[in-house]
Amino acid sequence: MKELGETELKVFVDAVINYFSITTRNEASIRSAYLADGVPQTFPYVGLITISGQYRGCVHFSTSVAMMRELLVCWGEHDTSEANMLDGIGEVANTIAGNARRHFGSQLEISVPIALRGMSDRIKAAIRTRPFVITVNWRHHEAMVVVDLAPVD
How far apart are CA 92 and CA 90, in angstroms? Predict the structure, then answer.
């Protein structure tokens, strides 16, 4: 199987745009997409999905406290407790990875999301020395999706 290319990366871009459009009824925009040197500094909330099957690695979604609060309110949840924000960040990551799974097929296995709070130095570039980073703007907030995947030989 070939390396991740523009078509495969577009799956993640489309998943992010569709996610915000459907769940919040507000469009998100892609600010940039680039190859990072290692995993970039995360925002305080991180939803991490590990992937196995025809690809291996991880995908994570990271954003600010303010964006998580606003997302919860958009979803009709007014309890912005730490527990709900952690559930929310995991749900965003799970949905983005799940949408990608529809494209890649059932041989792409995704884990249960891991939700982290705090700028995490525990997330390392496990597969690629330069993972793909997609930066997102939604309303006045920023977020990022990091795609650290490689095909299994």
Answer: 5
CATH number at residue 43: 3.40.1550.10
Tens digits of per-residue pLDDT, 3-19? 677 777 888 888 888 88
Q: Among residues 66, 121, 111, 56, which one has the least CA distance to residue 88?
A: 66
Contact predicate 130/3, CB 8 Å: no
CA angle 123, 120, 28 (to 5 degrees): 85
- Is residue 77, in this structure, part of any structural domain at all? yes
CA 91-141-64 angle, to 5 degrees, is: 55
The 8-class DSSP code of residue 78 comes to -
Q: What is the pTM for the complete model shown?
A: 0.87
How many independent structural domains does the chain possess? 1
Assigned domain for 27 exists: yes
> How far, in Å, CA of 119 to CA of 70, rounded?
19
Length of the chain: 153
Q: Show the low-confidence residues of the chain (pLDDT under 50).
A: 1-2
Collapsed DSSP state (helix, strand, coil) of residue 43: coil
